[in-house]
């Protein structure tokens, strides 16, 4: 009996305790939406507070004193429009006023000057073409094409490089937003056309190239050379070195060392820095080679690099040191005991995916933003000339390689303009030009 009573009371207790916990659960369940609401409300409040704190701590994008975006916007109004206005006036004079139905009275009948970008004769950046090369001294900078691919050992086509770069340059305005500069207003640029190269003869072409470059530099005008394969890297420097008693350093950006004495028994595009650093005023200790590496550096180049003690940075060096540091170290070596620095930019130094139109594409190179940063830093100290080589439009897609080459050039010019170093090195050309 007792046992039965105890068992019954146990069942009752269990049942009541079950009912109790069920009630609790139900109560809790009924309370949950309210509790949740409270929790959510407090979470939202905390998040708002955080957001406010974040906004408070971050620069206000609409405050002109904080972001570069706004500073750049405000800088635009400080650049004159004098040259542009002159271009419009001349366009109306030479191109005749536009049809009466056109409201914008700056538009002529015949396209003259920059606009429209798809029209006109394609000089580099629509800069004036100088028919008479003797007038090159009237300009700060002269663009010259070197349509030569006789030094190419694999994919040819760089003879069309100057055309490709000029064609896509029609896309650009002379104004750069972030830098707050306008090349048309702040420097003078001309296109002197192309060097008459001899397709089947490297040495004759070299002589023509050296003469052309020496002619331009001897007028105190900075040559910007549109290659062409990299074999032209020797005659361009030889031309510069021939019209100065001063020393020149070279910053050479490339995946390839290009310092063999010969390749296929000739001075091909794998050889320019062997011959350039043989010149009496171009010391190999002032040759800086950036981006070298991969599976395309011929072994005969290596012993020359070691023997001449050139300065070599691989992509891993760039990765580990960073672009700023590499640029700083490169400038230090290139300017050590020299009076000016020349930049030779091989477009294949950039990751192959971005530059399909080149002679020896190699994956793993610089990313475009890294390349542009490097070029800007190098050019900031001033250059006595520069070249962009190995653009091969027949292998290009949608002009992207030509576009990259164009960007390298205008970024270098832009950097020199914004740092006031455009004319810095042009005083070194103190020797009379004696043609080869
Ligand atoms: Mn190369």
Shape label: globular
The CATH homologous superfamily name of the largest domain equals: Ureohydrolase domain
Based on CA atoms alone, the radius of gyration comes out at: 32 Å
Provide the residue-averaged pLDDT: 91
CATH C-level label of the largest domain: Alpha Beta
Ligand catalogue:
manganese (II) ion
Structural class: alpha/beta
The main sheet comes to:
8 strands, parallel
Instruction: Give the H and E element order.
Output: HHHEHEEHEHEHEHEHEHHEHEH
Helix coverage percent of residues? 40-55%
Head-to-tail CA distance between termini:
131 Å
InterPro entries: Ureohydrolase, Ureohydrolase_dom_sf, Ureohydrolase_Mn_BS
GO molecular function: hydrolase activity; metal ion binding
Pfam family, one: Arginase
Keywords: Hydrolase, Metal-binding
